[in-house]
Amino acid sequence: MKYSGFNAALALLSGVLAFNSSMAHADYVKQLPVSQIHPTQPAIGYDEVKLKIAELKQDRKKLFNEFCKNNGAGKVTSFDAKSDITVAKSFQCADAFGSQLAEVKSAVLAPDHQVYLTDGHHTISVFRDFSGDKDFPYYVRITDDFSKLPSMQAFWDTMQQKNLAWLSDPQGNIVKPEDLPKQVGMKYMPNDDYRSVVYFLRGAAYKKMDDAPPFLEFYLGSWLRTHAPVKGDALKTEAGYAAYLSEAAQALTAADGSQHATADAKSPTLDQLGKLDSVKSKKLKKLTEEDGKLTQLFSDKA
Questions:
Q1: Tell me, what's the pLDDT at 24?
Q2: 138: left (phi over 0), alpha (psi -120 to 50) or beta
Q3: Contact call for residues 122 and 49 (beta carbons, < 8 A)
Q4: What's the CA dihedral at 187, 43, 125, 137 to 10 degrees?
Q5: Runs of H (alpha helix) within 22-91
Q6: How far is CA 215 from CA 13, 77, 207, 293, in A?
Q7: Could you tell me what percentage of the chain is helix, strand and coil, using 3-state DSSP and rounding each to the nearest 5?
């Protein structure tokens, strides 16, 4: 009995080594019901999702273009007033679904034979809202097949090692993988205000580079939560939101770029996350102009 722990560890190590010696990388599309796509992060930024919904409500062609594109089918070529994204026969895309691989959001396969999304939580949340929370077929791009790993624990360890999962909640607390939401969408995932704030600050206080670290927005949100927290109901009105964005942009751009985004010394520095040296005031001002993102967001809330 005294060797049981050692033998269990040896078996786990053997499984991992066997897995690593095989080809885990994949790159193919898979269609499945959207309700069966599992998140790899606990929360999303509701305001980012709601803004996109507001934009697409004003332009149905853009809605179907976005749906076709994100399912790897190019642009929409035909739709009418009765068309519904949950009914594939009600509209026509330029190409076959899944044929444009690079446009399809990424996901991985796990030992439980489920699909876990690694990019596109906000996009899918937008489409689920438009569907009225109906189930519908959706395409994902499987980038890695981890189904041969010996356990779900090994899977989540691998996901964290490869920066494919974000396991912190909107308050900055660690989340156990088993406590993650079971589906993607605003009905299933809580709101993280800072995730939305960082979305609005793009181009004004940081630049998202092509080689940006995974979960850049969550890292910057974590930094803001600690160094420039939202006060009271500042995000409840357009004026309050704009004032906070100005404050947050000033704090971020004035910060030491070598500072890590979180207390974890392994987290990216602010410079690595694209921090700018000064606020791009025109970018901030544009948010509250007639066609600005904040204006659209709060017009839809009215």
A1: 79
A2: beta
A3: yes
A4: -90
A5: 46-57, 60-70
A6: 29, 34, 14, 22
A7: 45, 15, 45
pLDDT given for residue 300 in this prediction? 79
The enclosing H or E element of 227 equals helix 216-227
Report pLDDT for 9: 41
Q: Which two tokens stand for residue 144?
A: 């890695």
Q: What is the pLDDT of residue 3?
A: 37
Do the beta carbons of residue 116 and residue 110 sit within 8 Å?
A: yes
Collect the ranges in the chain with pLDDT lower than 70: 1-23, 302
* Single-letter amino acid, residue 284: L
Query: What pLDDT score was predicted for residue 302?
Result: 66
Query: Which uninterrupted H or E stretch holds 10?
Result: helix 4-21
- In tens, the pLDDT along 237-257 reads 999 999 999 999 999 999 999
Q: Give pLDDT, residue 25.
A: 86
- The encoded tokens of residue 183 equal 């589906």
Beta carbons of 291 and 299 less than 8 angstroms apart:
no
Residue reference for tokens 């156990």: 176
Cβ atoms of 244 and 234 closer than 8 Å = yes
Question: Would you state the structure tokens that stand for residue 142, as one six-digit string?
Answer: 């499987």
Radius of gyration of the chain (CA): 21
Minimal CA–CA distance to 37: which of 126, 114, 122?
114
State the pLDDT at residue 121: 98
Contact 241/284 with Cβ under 8 angstroms?
A: no
pLDDT value of residue 16: 46
Distance CA 91, CA 296 (A): 27
CB hemisphere CA count around 24 (13 angstroms) = 20
